[in-house]
Structures
1.
Amino acid sequence: MAPLPADLDAVIERAWQLTQGTAGFLGENEARFLGMLAACVPARGTIVEIGSFKGKSTVMLASVAAYYGLGPVVAIDPHTSPSATDPGISAGSSTYEEFLASVKAAGLMEHVETHRAYSRDMAKGWSRPIRLLWIDGDHTFRGAREDFDLFTPHLEKDGVVALHDALNAFEGPIRVFVEEILRSDKFGAAGVVQSTAWGQLRPEDGKDFRALRMRIERRARRMLPFVANGKRVQGFTKMGYKLARSRVPRAAISAEEWSALISRSCAE
């Protein structure tokens, strides 16, 4: 198990103090988890964020990355509206200025590489290795799968891909998590924190973690029929969805627990 930074807890706490004042839909447990990933993922490369909104996750990632000298966070978002995930934003408006204001207020402008663009357009010329891929863009299955397919080929071995809103009644994140991560031996350890699903790329020994992934898959797959084809979860269907969701483990995890998890074989 690789040693963790001795000051990690303090760094995450400072990052959270900056993050919690930024508008967005990232919960505290998943924000802290995202900061931990930025600091602790045992792979080289860039941190890439697809979907920045008003900068909440950007501030968390960039604050941790800046402290540990991990290079700028690449933030990709066209900042257009409205969308299924941002229904409250009026048509024709943009979150771009608020995003820039958030990053500037946190003192992190030089630690964020901003791209006001669609992820598919950025992917056309992308060649940099990625250590942490944070997908929080188009939550339809087509959109989430496209982001996954376009950028995971650049994910370094032992790198991590994380998807936001996997437990928030959108088809894309949960379906990609179940079908492309939990059911694939290219990935090793995996899990969910609050509503953020994640998996570590382990193409050489992912099969050793199959039992762990399948325990999660058996529970997470029960959510798929409720969100299939982008249908809305409402009425009695919502009750069933919430029951299925409640069975998916999603508790906060410490850096020590996470490090131990990705370091052990789960073949038993």
2.
Amino acid sequence: MQSLPRQPFIQRLRINILRLLFVLLLPLLLFVRPVIAENGLGGTLMEEAGILLVIIAVLGRFWAVMYSGHNKNRVVVQHGPYSMCRHPLYLFSTIGVAGFGLMVGSLLLTLLITVLAGVVLAATARSEEAHMRSLFGPDYDAYAARVPMIWPNPVLFQTPHEITVRVQALRVNLQDAVVFLSFIPMAALLQWLKHADYVTTFPLY
């Protein structure tokens, strides 16, 4: 079985750094108490919105991998989500991170981790684009001139009637999907530990 093309080293390094920063942030979340009442309407809406964003992130990443998993680093993928923005995987990952912040209940924390994820993934995207330009030259330049980098433009959407899906790529993405879905019970566990008064918390908007 042919293996999937490996990511450029700097790209993998930055993504691993982002994952490490997230793991290091988890203990801090134990000591944060949202100012918005968790049992009130505001807290409930934030939690439900966060869960929705995580689900959107998981489904969106699978959608993107269905188009890119077979062709990435072989051709310039320009259909499906890639017809609206050049890095839909990073877009949906950032959405998932924002969802986790909302589930924790802190608007300030949501902004902090979303911006952090966005900055790291944007830098990773620029590194990836340098790699793609070395592979495809003018073809990728033309694609980049037409399609926005991260923020999608739905007007540009286009897709063929049929696509080829690589099962191996879906299996790899499934691992990331499990990570994103784990945000939901992880946020619930953090809230339970705080309600049980196992830790001293401080308020954070």
3.
Amino acid sequence: MRDSWTPEANYLLFDCGPHGSLACGHAHADALAIDVAANGRTVLVDPGTCTYTGSKDLRDWFRGSDAHNTVTVDDESSSSPNGAFSWKTIARCSLEQWIAKGRFDFVSGQHDGFTRLADPVTVKREILFLKGDYWIIRDTVAAIREHRVDISFHFDSEPGVEQTLEVLCFGNGRKVEEEAFVSHCYGQKEPAKVLRFSATLNGGGEIVTFLLPQKSGAQWDVKELETNEGRAFEVHGGNSRDTVMIPASGAWCWTRIIAGEVSESLCAALTE
């Protein structure tokens, strides 16, 4: 997902492909993970590899789901490692929808990596990218019993990079800041910040996240609205007011209002 090729572009990579090839020796448990650049600056990253055989703990952490910008369930990875270059279980991703337009991109996909749990869990991720503006992510967890769900956002190790992108999560949980690592080259690691949103979901549920690139002279403000079905949000940014409707099932609806008049609406386009 990219809104331009200029030095100030916003960009997101969504991993919804195969776990790897052959024995998947170099794969990571990064099903449905994202990497993000905001205003031309690398912000949310895959922390890298660091080591293969120097430390089992570091090897497993750097390739685990907890080290990627994705969802973990009950502190488990979507794919579970075995040896340094092998896996006990492998998550299978499936792409459900991909719409690419001039004004927006929309993608949805899911994986079966947590169906191995005693109470099988399915994770689905949907992303709407409003080009030149922001991303909206809905993570949906389907289960019968209670599970702890964590969503991680790993920032690059460059000082102050977290000021480039505001991360707002909406759900019955809490957001915590932690210290982690980024490995820019083999054998080395640097301290870096990670933001996690943790929630306990009983019988499944969903978490909606806004990724808001910061703009000079404009401050984003997001609030959730009451609705009879699904989720609804209002986003203020400078002189605009956006309304986002996310039904429990079916197509999303996004509308922008400027000076009391509807200037844009993507409701019909999102039904493809």
4.
Amino acid sequence: MSDINVEVELEPGFQNYCLLPTPPSPEEAAEAVRRSWQCLLLAPRRITAPLLTAAYAAPLAEIVIPDFTIWLWGGTGSFKSTLAALILSHYGDFSETNLPLSFESTSNALERNLFLAKDVLTVVDD
């Protein structure tokens, strides 16, 4: 099988999403799963378990149609954006300062971008 290079231009806000260029080795995959599960230790399980579940369930949205939204609620400085960015990092290179969408966008822009991101986890931050 030959390597095929494909280049995609992503919409603004989605540049940090990425796919692995090559499959990981079994050791790398095992380490990735271990690190992923460590996300459960970041906050109480009642908060982290639904977030981690959403990260794994998002690509299955065509099969198991989700009928929910996860909303992180808390006071300023309670690390909501940081926690959301860590979970979103399952899909690319994110931090609390470069989340893909913002409530500053128009409702039409948010609807369009959420449609484009329908099979991945995304975050709309204030």
